[in-house]
Structure formats: C-alpha cells, structure tokens
C-alpha cells in the first residue's frame, strides 16, 4: 500500500492511497455548516461522494457510498460536532477492476478516507482498515488483494473492514467487524476463513497506517520540539 | 433520450422491447358486451381498507363485471400534512396515478386522469377544514385485465373504480368529505355524482357523438346508485 | 424567590414513546422479552408468494393478447408486499466479423469462460420503487437496492447467458396466404443450413419492475426473494423473422469499396409458443436479515430489586427486522442470501455499534438456512 497525505491545498484533509492497481484520491472538508436538510440535531452529519475512474456517477457508486458510510459512521466521534457536517469526496483514479466489481475500490477508499480524516483532524473513536479477498474457482485458494486478472478467476469476492485501536499497553485491539460484503458462491467455512484472513490483513494494514500517521505527525508538529 | 438516467439501471440502450406478432383471430369478443351496455352476469366488488399500513388511509378495490373484465385498484392517502412555502387557507389536493404492472397508458393520458380526478375531489373534500395542509392521494392500478393499448375505452373502464377507491381511502383516512363520491359509466363516458345523484361533480367523455346528454346522465346515475350502495354497505 | 420547582415525571403512552424515542421504546420491549412487532426474538414474519396472475403466461390470465409481462411474483411478508413484473427485450449480439465456423466460436467461448467467470453469467435490469407518499426521483435506498439485486444476480451464476440466447425461427408466407412459422430446432437438416447462413445472433434481455408497498423494514431480502420467485415463472416467447426480411441485403459502395449491409428489422415474438427460462436451479437461494443490539441496563424495566445489579449489557439477536423502532436503533445488521444447505450467494455484515461475534454469525447462518428452506417450500 502506498500512501501520501495532504496533497490538496484547498480542503481540510486529503490523501492518495494506491494498492495493487487501484488508486484513490480523497478529500475531507469540515466539520462545517451543513445545508438544513443534512443537519442532525445531536450528531455530525456525513456526506460521502464517490466518483468513478471513468464516466459519471451511477447506482454502482451509490452502493459504494453506502458501504463506505457504514464503515466510517461508527468510527467517527460524531457526538462531538452536533449540527455540523463533514464531506468526504473520493475520486477513483485507477479502478484496477472491471465495472462488475467494486471490492478493490471500496477497500482502498476506506483506507484513503481514514487517512484523510486524520489529516483533517476530525476526531475518531478508533481506526479502521479495509481489504479485499477473493476465493479462486480452482483450488479454492484465498487471495488477499487480488489483481484484476486474479479477481476475474475468483468464485467469490469479499470486502472486509475492521475497527481497530491500540489499548493502554500498546497492544493492538480488534474492536469490531465493520463490514463484510461478499458476492459469488461460497459456503460457511469459506466465510469464516475470509474473516480470519481478513483480520490478519487488516491488522497489518492498520500498523502500516499507524506508522504513516506517526511519521506525518512527527513532521507536522516539528515546531513543537 | 439523450441523457441517460443514471439513477436507474435501465440496461443496454440498443435492446428492443419484445414485440408480439399480431394474433390470428382465434379469440373473439365473445362475452364482453351484449351490444347495449348491459353486461351479462353479476358484477362484484371486493373492498379492503387495511392493505397499506404506512399511509394515513388506504383502500383496495377489485372490480369484476361478471365477464372477463377485472380492475384492481389501490389508493393510498397521505395527509393532511404540513405544506411548505407560503400560507394557504385551503388544503391542496394532489392525485398521482400509476400503473404498477402493465404500462399501457401514455404520460398525456395519465396527466388527464390526474387532472380529472383532482377536479372531482377538490369539489368533494372539505378543503376549508385543512388550511396549510397537503393531501396527497396515490392511485396504483394493479391490474386491468381488458386493457389494450390500442383501444380508447381503457380509461373509461377504470375511472369509476378509481373514484370509488379514492372515496374509500379518504373515509379510511378520516378526511372530511361532503358526501361519498361514486361514478357510473356508459359507452365512452363517465359521470361522477354526489348527494344521491342530485349533483354532478365530474363528467369525462371520450365520445364525440353523444346525442342525448340527459339520457346519458340518467344511465350513469343508475350505475352510480348501485356503486354507492356497495360502498355504504361496506362502511356499515 | 424561594419557590420550589416540582419535577413531575411525564408518562407517554407506548405508541407516542415509540414515535419520539424509538430507542427507549425498543429497549423496554426487549426487557420484556418481546419486540415492538410482538414477535419472538428469532421469529420471522410469515411469507406468502404467488405469481399474482400478472404475467401473460399466468394460468388465469385474461389479457394474454396485450400483456407483455413474461414473469411475475406477488410476495407478502407481514403487512409489506412486493409486486415484481418481468418484461423482456431482444438485443442483437455483436459478433466478430469472421465468425465463419461455429466450432471456432464455441472454443472461443470456452476460452473466455476460463479466464473470466462473470463472462458466462447474465443478469436482469431491476428498477425498485418503494411507495412512500412522495413524488420525485429514486431515493438512495431504491438505487442501492436495485444495484445490489443486479450485482448479486450477476455474481450468483443463477442466470447464464446461454439461457437467454434466442433460437430464432422464420415465418413463411405461402403463396396461398397461409402463414407458418418454423423454429430452428424443428427444422429439417437441409433447411437448417439455410438458416445458419443467416449468421446473426440475438439474446433476450430481462427487465424487472419491483414495487414495494407498506414498507416497514429493510427491503433488500424481500425484493431478492420476490425477484427469484418471479424469475422462476418467466416464459420466454419464441421469436422469429419474416422470411422475406431474413435475406434482405443492400449493396452499398463507400470509398471505392463495395460491401453489403443487411437491413435492420424487427424480430417478432410468437404470441402462443414460449419456452420456460432455464435457471440454474441448484444455485437458487433466498435472503433473510438479522439485527444485533446491546441491551442497555439503564433502560430496563426493573423486575426485581435483587436482580438489578447482576445485569450487565448483553446483546440479543433479532431475526427479520421490522418496524421503525428496530430499523433506526439497530445498527449492527446481517443480511444473508443462502440456500437450505448453506451455499451462499451474498452476505453483508455491518457492525454499526454492537459487537458481532463469530457465534452470532453462526447462529444467523443456522437461522437463514431454515428460513431458506421455508421460503423454498412456498415458491
């Protein structure tokens, strides 16, 4: 996973994340004044916009937005900003998969959004990371982060996002399963294998994200030392 | 359409809808009409008012004319509910008509139906009672078995059932109306009445050569009285 | 200035509390071990499915001559009902210019099957509409549900491209004016050759119109079940070309080169003959949904003073989410699409607040297998 943060000057936070052929740029604006119909009386309102690599928004992107929303909502400390709103805009630069799939884009979008939220200084309750997994038709092998051609050979594809944090002792703490979205043909044991493998991969991504953030904070707050 | 609808999944643009070859005349018009509008057999109506639960009031009517014609109509009433914008001293009534399964009517015809029904019900609903409110009525035509896109009689066949259905939905919603509206049809015309047929609230006619209008009204009135009796019986 | 302020507790009737504070209302219900819809925690709504007599191929259809609906379903789950009507279209497939031999083409098909699994799968174009008493464009929920149905069916392999191929017939008008229609599988061998010279391929396209009434909870599973039961009733009408049109060619000359283009003409459908749509019966599966919610000790109705302190937040599993209170307060949800043997086609698990444990997922899988078995017996 390659990441860059603070790439855009006119928004509060931004990031570019790419992972095995999929590349997404994300911008975060807010917390700011919402339009009246978006306003929530007790919590921070969230708007997520996904723009595809080719063409214009369609129902495909609406479904992606919905999935990303369900991942990010529990992670944000929404009670801290009632009647305000955050806009997260995700532009897919390279899809890395055909239009019939969204797994790679969704998982990269989640990681990009988390980095951009941290860059914008929006308070989070915990961190999250996302990955995608395919199970091949022949051999029933689990492939983490499949490439476009591997994906096409998969019998089932899965997006997996985990809520993670670090406790007082510095140990990684798996808090909850945020999203599992599976399509294709699979059975119960495969589902649990995906959960197991996904957890490992998410923890790996989480440590990666953490070190990126650590470097970033060290750099941003260099004047404090 | 030049701009593709991006909010619906419409499928490939070059696909053509299925076209059925003209049927060789095996089926004839056996028992639809015996010529002078007296349909053979028993007409029957099924009424239910608890089908749609998320509306303020609703009704579902199945009308069978004893032959093959079958009209299934569902109405739901939303309101009275607050209206946005400037102050209005009367309720604003809106009626939306939709075909749930087959799509045989074009948008122009649907608009005409909506306007006609809105006029009828604006006269019947006690709109002064509900200032600053909107009453939205949705009619879903679930099935009309004799509907034929090439025939003009479609609308006339369904209108009386639509009117009956809206009346029942309004009663179910507890919205004040001055009287139960119902209608009768004859040839290509529909007349809607209230007050035991002493007052007409709407006339729809697709017939260019109506010679004797009072005769037409009398015949529609006879059917209106039957329809109204059915509604009253259900409400008892 | 020393007036004391009296604080009176306000008591709301249950239906008012449910409206103003659905979360507390739900917690109170749960503490009484019931649900706002008065079902048990793991109890589903009753489901009734039939074809609604909507399609032109329905047994009691009155209007077969003018009806263009080729498959339908009417599904009722509790108070909610879903009407699905399937219509069709025909699309000419773009073939490579040099598809001279059928054998080569089949090989090509096989080759592409190996590389891309979705290549052989087909799907339907669904439009979901939820009646909600408003006019205007589709809501997010309608768009998301349509897209989910579209994608799940595509990935499931229930509908294969081969099942939608048109085997086209020819209509002959004899000199005496009588009309006969011949289909390729009814043809004699020599005639078959003539037919194959007409090297064109068509396939059916299916559209689904799914209308939801009295919505009272998540709709995706209901729509999926309704769609599958409607697909099971689909009859594909036989299609044919007019003989005169079949060989129509126009010679044209552009930039000094001469070539022929064939007339584009309408392919017609037989009003009487039809074939059932072949689905991958073994792959059929049905959906169900679940919610997980923590029981808040504070919102509990005190049962007994002794028990008060022992209570600690535990979570409960609710099957088949219904009512606004449940839908808005339960953020951890599972939606599983499976058959009775636990072969999945889709699964969506969202952990909104309550923790989802593997045991709970196992329990949901167990329940969804039972539910699938129940629905399967009714379709």
From TrEMBL, chain A:
Residues 2-123 form the Exoribonuclease phosphorolytic domain. InterPro entries: ExoRNase_PH_dom1, ExoRNase_PH_dom2_sf, PNPase/RNase_PH_dom_sf, Ribosomal_Su5_D2-typ_SF, RNase_PH. It holds the Pfam family RNase_PH. Its main location: nucleus. One of its GO terms (molecular function) is RNA binding. The keyword Glycosyltransferase does not apply. One of its GO terms (biological process) is poly(A)-dependent snoRNA 3'-end processing. The keyword rRNA processing applies. Keywords: Exosome, Nucleus, rRNA processing. GO terms for cellular component: cytoplasmic exosome (RNase complex); nuclear exosome (RNase complex); nucleolus. It is found in: Nucleus. PANTHER family: EXOSOME COMPLEX COMPONENT, EXOSOME COMPLEX COMPONENT RRP46. Belongs to the RNase PH family. This is KLLA0D14993p. It comes from Kluyveromyces lactis (strain ATCC 8585 / CBS 2359 / DSM 70799 / NBRC 1267 / NRRL Y-1140 / WM37) (Yeast).
TrEMBL record, chain B:
It is found in: Cytoplasm; Nucleus. GO terms for molecular function: RNA binding. It holds the Pfam family RNase_PH. Keywords: Cytoplasm, Exosome, Nucleus, RNA-binding, rRNA processing. Coiled coil: none annotated. Residues 45-176 form the Exoribonuclease phosphorolytic domain. One of its GO terms (cellular component) is cytoplasmic exosome (RNase complex). One of its GO terms (biological process) is exonucleolytic trimming to generate mature 3'-end of 5.8S rRNA from tricistronic rRNA transcript (SSU-rRNA, 5.8S rRNA, LSU-rRNA). The keyword RNA-binding applies. Belongs to the RNase PH family. It comes from the Eukaryota. This is KLLA0F18304p. The lineage of its organism: Eukaryota, Fungi, Dikarya, Ascomycota, Saccharomycotina. It comes from Kluyveromyces lactis (strain ATCC 8585 / CBS 2359 / DSM 70799 / NBRC 1267 / NRRL Y-1140 / WM37) (Yeast). Its main location: cytoplasm.
From TrEMBL, chain C:
Its main location: cytoplasm. It is found in: Cytoplasm; Nucleus, Nucleolus. It comes from the Eukaryota. One of its GO terms (biological process) is U5 snRNA 3'-end processing. SUPFAM superfamilies: Ribosomal protein S5 domain 2-like. One of its GO terms (molecular function) is mRNA 3'-UTR AU-rich region binding. Belongs to the RNase PH family. This is Ribosomal RNA-processing protein 43. It comes from Kluyveromyces lactis (strain ATCC 8585 / CBS 2359 / DSM 70799 / NBRC 1267 / NRRL Y-1140 / WM37). The lineage of its organism: Eukaryota, Fungi, Dikarya, Ascomycota, Saccharomycotina.
